[in-house]
Design a protein that fits this description.
Distance between the termini: 21 Å
Low-confidence stretches: none
Radius of gyration: 18 Å
Keywords: Membrane, Transmembrane, Transmembrane helix
Mean pLDDT: 91
Number of domains: 1
Shape: flat
Strand content: under 5%
Number of strands: 2
Oligomer: single chain
Order of helices and strands: HHHHEEH
Largest sheet: 2 strands, antiparallel
Strand order of the largest sheet: 1-2
Structural class: mainly alpha
């Protein structure tokens, strides 16, 4: 059911600290990627993804949060795969036709996008109709 517009969404302090730590890990991962510091970039994949999954699990009861946090999990997965493909050197290797190793990152990117499209095009309108009643 859709949340009323004036309803406050609050985050408990421990969850907020976890989200802030998530941002730190994500930035360190991307700095490692940007600077080609392979040990830093690769070592930050696990904590970044783990916290993203935990945040998703903890917000699973709020459909909007679930959709967006799932999209973030898939975004980090795609981003991490892309980084590793560059670090290991298979980003430009053709895997099928003109598709390279880097292009395979599109699978989790598109999965996250599909989740958001479903939420905005199907689920949210259904919630709105259920809350406000269908008009003829």
């Amino acid at each position: 059911m859709e949340q009323p517009a004036d309803q406050v969404y609050s985050i408990p302090a421990p969850y907020r600290r976890m989200e802030n730590m998530h941002i730190l890990f994500w930035l360190l991962k991307d700095i490692g990627w940007c600077m080609i510091w392979k040990p830093l970039g690769i070592s930050m994949i696990f904590p970044t993804l783990l916290i993203a999954v935990l945040i998703t699990w903890r917000t699973r009861d709020i459909k909007a949060e679930l959709a967006h946090n799932l999209a973030i999990v898939f975004w980090i997965t795609a981003n991490s795969y892309w980084m590793v493909s560059e670090f290991v050197g298979f980003d430009t290797v053709r895997v099928w036709g003109t598709i390279t190793g880097k292009h395979l990152a599109l699978l989790p990117f598109l999965t996250g996008l599909t989740i958001l499209l479903y939420y905005y095009l199907v689920q949210k309108p259904q919630e709105h109709r259920a809350t406000h009643g269908a008009t003829l």
